[in-house]
Amino acid sequence: MSKIDLNDVMFETMVIHAGQEPDKGTGALSTPIFQTSTFCFETVEEGAAKFSKEIPGYVYSRGGNPTNRALELKCAALEGGEDCVATASGMGAIGAVLLGLVKTGDHIVCGDTIYGGTSVVMRTNMPDLGIDVTFVDTTKPEEVEKAINEKTKVIYFETVTNPTLKLADIEEIAKIAKKHGVKLVVDNTFSPPPILSPLKLGADFVIHSVTKYINGHGDVIGGVIIGPKDDIAVIRGNYVTKICGTPPSPFNSYLVMRGMKTLPIRVREHCKNAMEMAEYLEKSEYVKTVYYPGLKSHPQHELAKKMLNGMYTGMIAFELKDDVKGLSAFEAGKKFLNNLKIASIAVSLGDPDTLIEHPASMTHASVPPESRLEVGITDGLIRLSVGLENVKDLIKDFEQSFAKL
Questions:
Q1: Residues 203, 255: one domain?
Q2: Which pLDDT band, with edges at 50, 70 and 90, does 368 fall under?
């Protein structure tokens, strides 16, 4: 057992030490990569007892692996949850948590602005399974409550929406969920701790694509589900390890844990750079609108100040003006992205590298055009994941690209 009382240390200390301690067999400081599919037993009786869970232990890496378990414990501590199950991707986490909470005939209330992959699950996969989904504007808690009916089992939304950076008042919606006996599931990928901890505000489950900020180095795909111990056990046993079969590889878990040790430092720098970029873009003669919760112009700036712990995420969305040098916002946007030198055109986020993309043709291309427009994902919208480069260099890069319009 760790000598450290994780409840008695600050966030930076906790995220380094949670879930990890020197290996008992070798004394190795870093958690070893248990790159094995199966585990041996001393006796048949021991094997039977581990299969039946009469005694703790590992039998097969799809059902559990020491490296993966260390990541799960670290992520549970990160979000202040009872337990966690890791998955091979963020979508693996979304699919498993939904399958674990709803069945044919049930109903989900879902935020109207979500990642494109999640949109396919909600608009296609869930209805195919006989599960109804109602999309609502989660910036309005009253609309969430109005959508709940006797078959509703889950309210689902993103804490900071992808790509329009709208916020939901988690505390208010959590009260509504509890009033109606509904589980609240939030995707916290855009605003990981130390920015925001949804469980402390009343959410039942938190999911992350750890591909993004939590790993933070652009070299891993993975996901996690954090929530009540008993519910996580069911989701792990029936859905992650069975119908989905999506545990992460031990090597990927090792990389995520390595990345997590610098999470507080990285997140603060991402947010600092993003604030400067948002202020720069808001003053640009080429930019029509900037969507960033840290700006006073953001319609939910006061809620952002209350919820986001003084850090407003490393993500920005913005639209160029129409008729920029005779170009439409869409055509100007394409030309602008193509002429950038430091920022890379890519669809992920949370990397040290600055990444920029066009949601309507990339991350949200699977969302019906009319649905995109309803929530503000126009053909001219650009999504920017601000990296860890020197922000002066990023601004210089944007300046040279704007000059070429």
A1: yes
A2: confident
